[in-house]
Model the fold of this input.
Amino acid sequence: MRHFEFAVDRKHAHAVNEFFADLRRLRLLAIAATVVAAAGTALLIWLDHPWAYLLAVAFALGTVTALWVALWTPWHSSIDKLYADGELVPAVVSEARPSGVVLLALVDVSAPDTRDPRYALVTRKVRDLPGHQARAGERVPSVAVRTDRAPRQVGQRWQSVSAMPIAWGTTDDSVIARARAAISETEWRLLTDNLALAEKVRRTTTKRLLLDPHQLPGELGS
Done:
């Protein structure tokens, strides 16, 4: 796995990192759900009816689940951890819109203990992309972030993987340039050659399209 080390600008990241903002909203929703489910559990127990106890068990399970998410999110959403653990991957702007841009990224979606990589094209719509130009083909070095709510995979592949731009973690142009140079030209060219597939990827439920390993360039294929 290819990692990229740099000093994360936390103030900048908290201001522009949309992935962090999404996880923060998830935590707030989980806290609210915990309170509601706990109150529902208490009310059902207070009613003291046989059917109420059955529902109370379901509400109690919901309380535990919501509380787990609320406690799990702060640990998982550490900016430094996300960048340190994520694999450096290439992403390019596939489309510029008034509301933001669409990124097309090349990501290895195989599980960590899998010997052979399995590459896929993934898309992500972002509202703000500091340090980059909003034009098709713009190279945006990123890190792959596993966005599952638990460490689960489907077969040998992660269920959900997204790209988080290095530019969301720093305002230093030299860091972005260094990350861009650390990615092979073969990978950048593969993305550029497949820009036309971005819309097809975006229409999929998982926002990703598995690539045939036998049709990949030599250094990426099987």
